[in-house]
Every structure is written in C-alpha cells, then in structure tokens.
Amino acid sequence: MPTASDFERMLRGASLRVTAPRIAVLSAVHTHPHADTDSIIGVVRQNLGAVSHQAVYDVLRALTGAGLLRRIEPQGSVARYEARVGDNHHHVVCRSCGAISDVDCAVGAAPCLDASDDHGFVIDEAEVIYWGTCPECTTAAKSS
Amino acid sequence: MPTASDFERMLRGASLRVTAPRIAVLSAVHTHPHADTDSIIGVVRQNLGAVSHQAVYDVLRALTGAGLLRRIEPQGSVARYEARVGDNHHHVVCRSCGAISDVDCAVGAAPCLDASDDHGFVIDEAEVIYWGTCPECTTAAKSS
DNA sequence: GTCTTTTCTGGAGTGAGTCAAGTTAACGAA
DNA sequence: TTCGTTAACTTGACTCACTCCAGAAAAGAC
C-alpha cells in the first residue's frame, strides 16, 4: 500500500498541487477500490474531518483527468473510482448486488481492440464489462 | 422498416397491451437508433400529440424489460435506446461529440466472453464499448 | 355492455452531480 | 521569509434525468 509521501510524489508528478484533500482522496480510493463518490466522501471525512463534497468532486475530476484515477460507471450504478490505472483491465459486475471485480484482459494486452467495422472511427480504447452473478448471489439464489 | 402492424405483433408477442404510445415509441426508436429519452419523447409527440414524459419512461422500461428494446448508457451520456436486439453487437462512441455507431462482434458470436479469471462470477454477457473519435471530429480536429 | 386490470396523466419529489462567487492556502520568486 | 499569483476549497443554490404517487382513462376478458 502506498504511503502519503508516495501519493505526494504522484501528485507532483502530475504537476498538481499537494493538498490534504487530494492525499486523502487518493488514499481512500487505494484502500476502497470501486468505491462510489459518496463512500469516498465518507472515508475522506473520517480521516480529515470536514471536507466539502464539492472539493471531493473537484479532486476526483482532477485526479481522473491527470490519469491517477480511473472512473467507471456501469449501467444503473453511480460513478465509481479505482486507482488501478495504466494497465488494460476490465470489470465483472454482479447484476443482483452490483459488486465489481477486476478482470485481466482475456485476449492479451489489447483485446478486441479491432472492431470488425469501425465506421471510420479512430478507436483508442476498448472497454469491456462482463455481466453476471457473483458467488454470494449465486449461492443465495440456489438456497432460496 | 417495420410497419405499425409489425409493432403490434411484436407487442402481442411479448404479451403487452397494444397502445398508441407504445407503437409510437417503438417506431421512434426504430427510426432513430441510439436516441436519448428526450429525443424519443419529441418524436413521439410529433406523431401523437400530447404524451406525458412519464408514459414514455414507462413504455421504454416495459419494452426494455420485454426485450423489444435495448438500453445503453455510455459514460457521461444519458440513457439511449436501440431496437436492434438479440444479436450480440457492440458500440463505438465518439469521445468528442458522443456519436454512437453499431459494431459487429470482433471475435465471432460471443467475443471475449471468457474472462481470464472470473472470480467465481457466473458471466452471461460481455459488453464492449469502443472509445475513439468519429470521422467528422477527426477531420474537424485536423483542419483546426 | 360491464368489469377488472393495466396504462396514462399531472404534479411533486429525489439524488447525483454542477455552477458560481468568494475565501484560503500552495508554492515559486523576490 | 515574505509576497503575489494562481490553483484549490467552501458554501449554498441549482440543474436535470429519472422516479413515485394518486387518480383518470382505456384495453382486453367475460
């Protein structure tokens, strides 16, 4: 787990100012992957005390823009953030409880990046979301 | 292009009641693929006159649930609907203008459905979204 | 034609996220 | 160290897609 000074280095590397809210948000997302904005606000406030929700929204946007965080938003869910960036990985989402897990790319480094007919689009990323049922919900459904 | 009686047959096939708003919504989505709810409401009102937005939301949900329509919502966009259901196809989304195009599956009928490590999830669908720049935006960017 | 059930209307409400104006603090330069 | 600039934070109002609710209307079964 990265330390506060690691986070500081990451911020400086992205030429962003180092502030307590930013460190706290970065840390919260590292310890709570796939957390939604509300939970992040909660965690940040536990560590720092009062922080405006607006600040957290701003920080999340700044960090996402700088490539330090990645924003994901599966259908029917609010925005979630994760700290694992730079590798091409995807997600499985549980239809029943909304749980999210990371999945490494099925077909090498850049899977499915070739669309059969790209309609002239210049494609730079392929995002894959697997939909299914998580182990907990599967067993819960069986026993009912 | 399907006719009103085709739509009627589709509704009956899904054991849904046949009403003017439903026919109109079905027709609107067929003629305007990837339209958002607001545009659909607009098209429906052009054809039918006054229809409440609530009715359109209800109809869209009923038709989506019955499998007659498919709901897609790429990040940063509101919900959109398309009438092409039952075949496993995906979408390219333009980062700059939000345009959406259909893309057939790159790797056969069910692409990438095998995650390398599924964490015990029972996966039933793989959704792929390609991100890029559409032809219009590409040429616009070059000329500027 | 009458009855039951589903659908539609109109209006109020919810909640994630944004906008705007003013204050505060980070950090490079003097 | 202090100063000034500029980015970041606070507060609070606001937007907008979407939902909930209660009553009215219409579709389909008998």
From TrEMBL, chains A, B:
InterPro entries, per database record: FUR (IPR002481), Fur_C (IPR043135), WH-like_DNA-bd_sf (IPR036388), WH_DNA-bd_sf (IPR036390)
Coiled coil regions, renumbered to chain: none
Entry similarity comment: Belongs to the Fur family.
Pfam short name (any one): FUR
Gene3D superfamilies in the record: 3.30.1490.190, Winged helix-like DNA-binding domain superfamily/Winged helix DNA-binding domain (1.10.10.10)
Keyword set includes Iron: yes
Keywords attached to this entry: Cytoplasm, DNA-binding, Iron, Metal-binding, Repressor, Transcription, Transcription regulation, Zinc
Protein name: Transcriptional repressor
Compartment(s) where it occurs, according to its Swiss-Prot or TrEMBL record: Cytoplasm
